[in-house]
Here is the input.
Amino acid sequence: MLVSRFITSLAVCMIFTAFLIVEVRRLRYSAYAYIAQSSLLVTVFLSIAILIPEPHFYIWALSALITKVIIVPWLILTTISKVSVEYEESPILPLSASIIIDLVLIIVGFILAFYIPLPFVKMGFRICLGVSLALFLLGVYGMASKTCAIKQTICLCHMENGIHLLLATLGYTSPVTVEIGILTDAVLTIAIMLYLSYLIKKVSGSLNTFRLSSLRW
Amino acid sequence: MYLINIVSIVVIPLLLGLSCIIAYIVKYGLGLRIYLSIIYLLTLGWSILLFILTYSGLIISGFSNEFRIDALSSFYILTISIIEFSCLIYSFRYMEEYIRRYRLPFKKLNEYYSLFTVTFLTLYMMSISNNIFILWVFVEATTLSTALLVSFGSYEAALEGAWKYIILCTIGLSLALYSSTLIYSYILDITGNPYKGLLFTDIAKYVSKIDLHILSLTCIMVIIGYGVKAGLFPMHWWVPDAYSEAPSPISAILSSVIESCGFYAIIRWLITVYKDILYLATVRNILLILGMVSIFLGSLFMIKQYDLKRILAYSSIENMGIIALLLSYPVYGFLYAIMHLFNHSILKASTFLAVGNIEYKYGRRSELHGIISDSPILGYMLLIGIIALEGSPPFSSFYSIFNSSLAIRDLAVLVIYLIGIFIGFIAITNRFIEVSWGVKMNTITRGNTPILMVIMPFALIAISLILGLYPSLLFNICSKCVGGG
Amino acid sequence: MLSIMLIIVTILTVILSILLPPLYDGIHRKIKARIHCRIGPPIIQTWYDLIKLFGKTDISPNISSKLYSYAPYLAFSYLLVALLITPFIYIRSIFSFTCDLIVLLYLLSSASVFLVLGGFSSGNVFAYEGARRELMIIILTELTVIFSITALAVRYSSLMITDIYRAIVVNYPSISSIVSSIAIVLCGYIEGCRFPFELSEAEPEIAGGIVIEYSGKRLALFKLSVLIKQFILVSLAVDIIEPWSLFLIPLNIPVFIVKTLIVYVIYAFIDPLFGRYRVFESLKTLFIFYSLAVLSLIFAVLRV
Here is the structure.
């Protein structure tokens, strides 16, 4: 009981970093918030490894550390300096409306987690399921409503964090190859999206993806 | 037996992987082209052999059932090999002109062929994998390699198409990953064995013990998740942009193979895990509604399009809607769905390549007319391709589009289905007749289209024609896929 | 025996809560001055100012109403009642009763409203402007405090402050309680009318704003009310984060003074960093604090 309380407390802290990632305007700080969130995720993996106990989770934690805390933020920060854009342009919604939508999505995520009949999820981990759904929904909302290409990429990473949290809490006995495959995929997706953002900046002069609307119907 | 396993599961992927690296490193020239053609031809030959073997009932598996090739997989691998081979031969001449027109560095050609082979590799690995997570990883990998190919021209519209493609596909595939995780942990809960929930074949044994609500929920998530890749209704927004702005061979690959890979994943899930709940109203209705809305969306949006490739993109959405509709009728519908998957791949690829020929010759894709008076071969190829695509009798698509109405048992659905198809037929034929016939244009053309580029669409249409004249072969193949898989 | 101790505790609470806030304000001014590289006033300067004000004549404008005359007294008396019922240095005070959390909320909000009403009824245009700005800020601040306190009540299933302290000591402090107290601390900073939220008394812009017409006793009580209101919020937050020291009888007063001192010192370091926010900027920041309170409510519902 204490174990699941500890893990759920860690997971809940990820919601604060989620807020920061989606709302903060300065791209670098958003990336730092992503580093904080990934570190929390690695801590969750480590505590699962130590406390449940589940020995092969050490490899999960190590691979998550290398990919999510070191490689992906390094890629993002390098792209930010290459593109030399510090602040994202204002997104579609003003800050107050955006915060309200964030809160509503978090509530929806938790409602979904508690009301979908999933008999195999132990009570302690229902909250982790809720956190994972909330992170997923926040990531999708971020991708839909932000106009800056790099911000959309960071929201995508954030969404992947939510999915990996779910994978860890529900399927923590799956073999290591699965996890490494999924992580490599995530890193490659981010790398390709950042390369595309760099090309967008080079070709059209700004990172605004909404302005690329030459194709209407 | 052991030799066959090793070759299909280890040697061919290694060969393809090696070719990616070689294509990136070696300087582009005749040698590279010959090497790639040989490798693709070898793979094509091997896939024909695999297909004949699995048609007679053999199932190839390796690495303790992690990889498994049955009739459905080998049919799909055959489709991939045919189309990839023809697009490769086509792109030899086409890409040189493309590089010249968009003023890209010559090194980009190496990237192109490397990514092309990576796509082939990931599609092959996807179709042989039996593990639900590895399947997902390779579907995601196809998204990545094709996204870079879509943005190949590096101009604004291409980047927009690639960006929309990669964002929508990643979101949708995450939903599919959610459902895989749910099924895995459910089976973990039931059996207590962590390795039992990973393989399709193992999951199929425990399906009867899973709660019905969870099966329906995950089924809907799989359909919507992999349906993004397939271009079904809620998430079809990336299809017109990505198809029209990619280079023609890549559009052909996208529309024929990548969309069907989304459906391959859905069909694999439906056949192994969701066989029984397909009779449930909720899942059937969702497939039905998604299919019908996609058909109408595709048909109606086609009416006002002037860009040839965008029309074909919306036609793709319509055809994917047809497949989804057919999938919702469990027994006969499956047969026709797989048949349509194959037919659509071949014919759509040939049409995109034909449009690519026209783009090569005239330099643009819209405001064209009088092509037949100018170059009759290109014009007639285009027209025949379109008629074949829309399901006219001597071609195999007749069986999958019109004969498949035998499988649809509700009269209302049948009527709406036929109306949707007719609207699409009218829209697309109208535009293409306007393009082909009429007065000759006064533009500067490029001269003779290279013979390699002209042959490929004809070859693909010919395959469809032959299969259309001997329909029983196709029926047998598809019933083997449904039954055995 | 117990009730004598409770009477002593309550009297001590009231005395401390009136003595300490001006001293903390003096510390705040001293630290801010040192950061500005000047020597600054002595720490008891705020008390000197208040005592001086008590001796000055009290002039009221002709057009002001009775509300203008009574508002500072009303606010101060409401805050005194709040001090009597809220336990700061011990688990309970002599007047603790079952729903005293709601009454505390009511008293705090009413005190804020009376101060604003006093500004509105001064009859001066500058006072009207300052009161209008203060009202906008109060709406979001009070909403944040309400949501934080609701989160506490939901999480520990009780509306009595004593029960909440006891519940936090028995179980471990939950994430919702920590987040609520962070939200209340942030609101406490806003109530103190310091940069960047010094909107109601913006000297260069509206020449004193809300307090422009007040003088003498009324001004002293006005300033004291503002300081005490901030002190109540800070003490509540600080006791929620760390309620264990409330049980240790001789040590609880020094520990309490140290805790609140730490919070005020942190406030003092925030003040020199900012200029004054304009109204919509301050509303944006307040919205972020408000979302913190909503998050704590969500976590409280989840029993995290």
